[in-house]
Amino acid sequence: MWRRVVYHPEVNYALRQTLVLCLPVFLFWLLGDLPTGFLLSLVPACCSIGGLDTPHKHFFKRLAIGGALFVTSSVLLQFLLLWSVPLPLCMLILTLLFGVTAEISPLYGRLMPAALVTAIFTLSMAGNLPVWRVAMLFVIGTVWYGLFIHLWFRLWQEQPMRESLSLLYRQLAYYFDEKYSLLTQHTDPEKALPPLLLRQQKVMDIITQLYQQIYMIPNLKHPRHRRFIQAFQVALDLQEHVTVSLHLPDEVQKLVEQSQAEAVIRHNAKMISHRLQVLADDILYHRRPQPFNMDNELSALEKIARQHPDNPVGTFCYYHFCRISRLLRRQKPLYNRTLMPIQSHLSFLQAIKNYCSLKSAAFRNAARLGITLAAGAGIGLTLNLPKPYWILMTIMVVSQNGYNATRIRIQHRSLGTMIGILAGAAILHLYYSQNLMLTMMLVLTFCSYLIVRKNYGIAVIGFTITALYTLQIIANSGMNYLLPRLIDTVIGCMLAFASSLWLWPQWQSALLRKNAHNALETYQQHLRQIFNMTNDVAELAYTRMEVNQAHNTLFTALNQAMQEPGFNTRYLADMRLWVTHSQFLVEHLNAMTTIARDQYVLVPALAQEYLNACEILIQTCQQRLEYDGPSGDPGILPIMESEDQDEREETSMEKHIERIMAHLTTMHTISSLAWPQRPHHGMWLKRRLREEG
C-alpha cells in the first residue's frame, strides 16, 4: 500500500515541490526571519520553469548556467532601473537578450521564461533590498534547489522515466482495448477512427518524451538503465504490433457471422490490455512482474484461423496477438535495435547567427513575448502602478505555444484567480494565528501541487490563497491586494490572448500542407527501406518510428487548427479525411515492417515494380500539395493503372501494398478537392510550399 502512495506520480511530484518550497521557509522561521524565507522560496519556481528539475547527464552544468542567467537577469534589471530606463523598454531588452537560448535547443529554451520570471520577482524587490542581496537570494536559492533535486533523484531512482514508461504501457493498453472492443463497428471510419487517432497521438508523444529522457541519462551501460532501455524497446515492439491495420470491415463482419471470432478476439484483447496495465503498475511501483501465459486463449484464436483459411482476419489477429503475447511473457524485445538519434543542440555562436534573423522562430517568439510584456508594463505605468509585476507574471504564466493552449490556460487562470480571491477574502477575515496560517499554507501548497498537472484551474485557487497569506504575513496587507490582483490578472490575460492572435501567431492551420508533405516524404523513405533486399533491421525500425512521428505531427497540427479562429471549416473537414487515410497508410506500413523483418515474400522484380508505383503516387500527392494550380494541372503525372494479376494467390505484403496505393490515390483526390477551399490570407497567399520554410 505504501508503494502506491509514495511512488504515485502526482503524490511524488507534490511532495517534492512542497518540500523544496517550504523547507527554506521553515528554516528561516526558526531563525526568526520569516520574510527572507518567503523570498527565498520564490527561486525554486524559477528553477522549475527553467527545466532544472530534469535529470540530465550535465545536470550541474545546466544548473550553473541557469543560476548565472538568473543573477544576470536580476542585476541587469536593477541597473537598468537605476539608469532610469523605462520599464517597458527593460522588459523588451531582457526578452530579446535571453530569447537566443531557444535557438540552442528546446531544453535550453526553457531558461528564457525562467530568467524573465526572475526579473519580475526582482521588480517586486527592487528599491527595498540592495542589489547584491537580491542577487545572493537567487544564487543561494538555485544552489539549494539543485542539491535538493539531485538528492531527491538519488533517493527515488529514475522516477521521471518510470512514470513515463508506466504511462506508455497504460496508453498502449487503452489503445489496444479500444481498437478491438469495437471490432464490428469499424465500417464507418469517421466514427471509429478519431478515438484511435487520439490514443495514437498520446502514445507517440510519450515515446518522443522517453527518447529525450533516455539521451539525458549519464551512463546508459549501468544495469539499472539497461533494464529501462530494454523495457522501452519492448514498448516500441508492442506499438508496432498494436497499431497495425485491421481495416477490413467486410471480412471482419463475415468472420463474425460464421464463427465465435468476435468473443474470442475480444477476450484475447482484454487479457492483453489487462497485462499491459499490470506491467505499467509494476514499472511504476518497483515490482517484479509475475509470470504470464495465454496459450489457451491463443489456441482458440488459432482454431478459428484454421477453420477459416480464406478469411485473412483470423490469421492476422493470431499472428500479431502471438507476437504481443511473446513480448509480454519474455519482457525482451523481438530483435536488437539502435535507438533513434536525438538532435544535438547548436553552438552558442551558431545560435546567435541564426537568431539574428526575422525567419528565426526563436526570435519571433521572443519579440512577441517582449512586446506583450512591454505593453503590460506600459499599462501598469499608465495606471500609476510603479511595479506592475502581477500583470507581467500573469502574461508569463498564461502564454503558451499555440492559440488553443493559451486560450485554455487563460480560462483556467482567470477563473481560478477569481475564486481564490473570493475564498481568500473570506478566510483572511477570520484572523488566524500565524502558526495556524503557516500550517494551512503548507496543506494548500501540497494539495495544489497534487492536482496542478491534471486540474490547473483548481490548483490556481490554492496558489492564489497561498499568495494572499504570504502578503498578509510579510506586510499584513493581504486584504489590500484582493481587487488589484484580480484586475492585474484580467489585464495580463487579455494582453496574452491579443498577442497570440495578432503578434506572429503560430497558426498550425498554415502548416498543415507542409506537415502533410513531410509525412509523405517519410512514407516514401520507409517504403524504400522495406523494398530494399539488404535492409538493415535497425534502420528499418528507425524509419518506421519516423513514419509514426511524422503522422503524429500532422494529426496534432490538424487538432490545433480546428480550434483556431476564423479558419475555413470546409478545408479542415477535407484535411481531416486526408489525415484519416494517412492513418490507415501508417498502419499498413507498420504491418509491412513486421513482414519485411520476418520473411521477405516479394521477388526483386516485383518489389521494384511496386516501389516505382508507390513512389509515383507519393510524388503526385506531394506535387498537388506543393503546386498552387488547378486540379487538372498537366504537370501532374497520371496514376498508374494496375496490371493483370497472375493466377497465383496474392501474398500479405502485396495486399498491404495495394491498400496503400488505394489510400494514396484517395489522398491525391482529396488534395485536389480541398485546395480550392483553402484560406486566402497570410502564408496561404504564397504559391509554393518551399516558401513556407
Automatic annotation (TrEMBL):
Pfam families: FUSC-like (PF12805), FUSC_2 (PF13515)
Sorted UniProt keywords: Cell membrane, Membrane, Transmembrane, Transmembrane helix
Limits of the Integral membrane protein YccS N-terminal domain: 63-330
Keyword Membrane included in the entry's annotation: yes
Transmembrane segments: 12-30, 83-100, 107-126, 132-153, 413-430, 457-475, 481-504
Domain Integral membrane bound transporter: 378-498
Keyword Membrane: yes
Chief site of localization: membrane
Family from the record: Belongs to the YccS/YhfK family.
Classification via PANTHER family: INNER MEMBRANE PROTEIN, P-HYDROXYBENZOIC ACID EFFLUX PUMP SUBUNIT-RELATED
Protein name (database record): YccS/YhfK family putative transporter
